[in-house]
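Researcher: Here's a chain I'd like modeled. Treat it as a single chain, no partners, no ligands.
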Amino acid sequence: MKGRGVLVPALGLILLVSLAFSAYAAELKEFRGVIIDNACATAHQKDLAKFIKTHPKSCVLKPDCKTSGMLLYLPDGKLLKFDQESSNTIVSWLENNNWTRIKVVVKVEENKGTDTYYLASIDNQ
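Model: Modeled as a single isolated chain. Structure tokens:
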């Protein structure tokens, strides 16, 4: 009977940890879109749908553009804003790849209490 007293709390802890991991995994969302910097998105907000079709990777990587923060332009015209750490990761990813297109697939987690998202993964479309 003594072993049972330890077993029940241990099983409870395992269940709690399992639920926490499954809840975390459920919060990741996948989106497809085009990377754009905040500076260009703001400057071209009235014609963004047209502008995004010609916005080159080289512009995103210009000093003023890449420090303004990164966004993901979604097919429905909405913008997904990344937090600063994720923006830096995206810039590094773009700098280290030879692709000229900036259409990507991302997995993100919403930063609770903010209007930004945390980047979990990124890949070229």
